[in-house]
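Students often ask why we bother encoding 3D structure as a string. The short answer is that it lets us treat folding as translation between two languages. Here is a chain of 202 residues written in the first language.
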Amino acid sequence: RACDVMERRLTVISLTEENTLHSLRSMVRRLHVGGFPLVTSRDKMLLVGYVHAGDIEQFAQAAEEQNWPLSSTRVTFSAFHPRKTSRHDETSHVPCPCPDLQLGRRMSSGLSMDGTMPEFSVDMSKVVDDAVIQMVPDAPLEQLHNLFRQLGCRLVFLVCRGRLEGLVTKKQFLLALQRGDIGGRARAAPTPAQRKDTELKT
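And here it is in the second language, the structure alphabet:
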């Protein structure tokens, strides 16, 4: 099953938490990953999309060029604000239409409510990848293999009823194949011919 090789310990960005350019950039530089899942909250873990590390760095650099303090520059995702549904009283996240703005126009500054301290904020809604590849954790490994091989994706999110359970990278999957520990059962290392048959196209 796909869940046998998934990464369960995830570092995520939550819509319900206060995020700044400094905190997000620190995550990127500390963890050296390609990006982070964007979720509704840490308790519900409903998957919204994926925020690439390169976009976080681009926003941070643009803010620095304008001499904005990264530690107090808030990051928002306004297109994914939660709203209550009347029928089930559950939280849903629906992207709202917004113009294709340039980077500089997605950044704003102004005075705080008391008119003293300047406030800075950036809206990163437009760079959220909300069309990520998803599959259920119990999906067979053959299906996961086909996603990597045929679609050329490097990351698959494992989701159950909207809740993010884990993810699998192409690199993780290949390592699991080479170790022969997929499914929790050790197997002999594959021969060069077998490895060629199962090797994913890069």
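Translate back mentally: The chain has five helices and twelve strands. Keep this in mind for the problem set.
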